[in-house]
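Quick one: examine the sequence and fold tokens given here and explain what the tokens say about the fold. Here goes:
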Amino acid sequence: MTPRAETLVEFRGVEKRYAAGGRAAVTRLDLTVERGEFLTLLGPSGSGKTTTLMMLAGFEAPSAGEIRLNGQSLANRPPYRRNMGVVFQNYALFPHMSVAENLAFPLGVRGIRGADAKAKVETALTLVRLDGLGHRRPDALSGGQRQRVALARALIFEPDLVLMDEPLGALDRQLREHLQSEIKRIQRALGLTVLYVTHDQSEALTLSDRIAVFADGAVQQVGSPEQIYEYPANAFVAGFVGENNMLAGTVVARQDEQCTIRLPGGQVVQATATGMIAAGDDVIAAIRPEHVETGACHPAHCNMLDTRVDELVYHGDHSRIRAGLDGGGSLVIRTPSQSGIALSDRLPVGWCADRCFAFPAAGITDASMGDRP
């Protein structure tokens, strides 16, 4: 029997407004963080994710609602009494102190000095694989090493919770991916509870036990990376997380969870209906490139369309095809590079209705669509 998760943090009806009567930066937030989990707040700039983290850290006060830690309200509890480690994108290290002195600083604030502090500093340096670098100043370290120091400083006093706000945003891709692995390794080894803020979808999918997707100050969906990616709750999540083909059409009929959609070119496709959708409604049908297959009709493919190869880009392990639809619009498809497909070919494609989700067209925003076909 799986042990019941223990709730560490609760947001209960939390809102944040920076001006009376102004737009809410965070609205109606009900969210829990379980002990030992890695929860990521994912969303575009201005979606409310960093404001949420800052309220939990105590650097911002909620305008309404309540935040609880270990069952106790955090109202009127200052940041230094919340026992949370915080890691920012800009490292926030003291430039005039050595690495060891930076790590010892939060210990000194808590009355830990001398041999005990030295032992904790050495353990922290080993944990982040910076043994022997305690004597260096931050300006003598690489960006990746400085971020490791910032992480070690957030962990050294054994906090209840570690908060990370875009900690890898300033690093190049290769180093960022390496440090993602390091952060996950440390989190698992220590059983840490982490609340992580990012706008990077790949980072969120790689690191998280659960993801809370934010837009316009509200949580759109909370779930595992697989749930978020494979079963988006609404049009925003479908468009923002990963890549999706977004096909506009009109519902012809709906039966239970399946609906029939007519595209502008007259083609008819089946999709899984999400939300309040009925015949006559304008919708967007979302299907991911990896779920579109090419070639002859397969019994599992209830949707089969004839397309034209308008663009073919080689990516080494796969090729990316942009296939035009009769009547306008196009599909992006990923296929093995040695597929024998050429520009201007007529290309039959197909996919299953349970991989295609129909959302009300009114739910589509510029932020979720991005650069779509």
The chain has a mean pLDDT of 90.
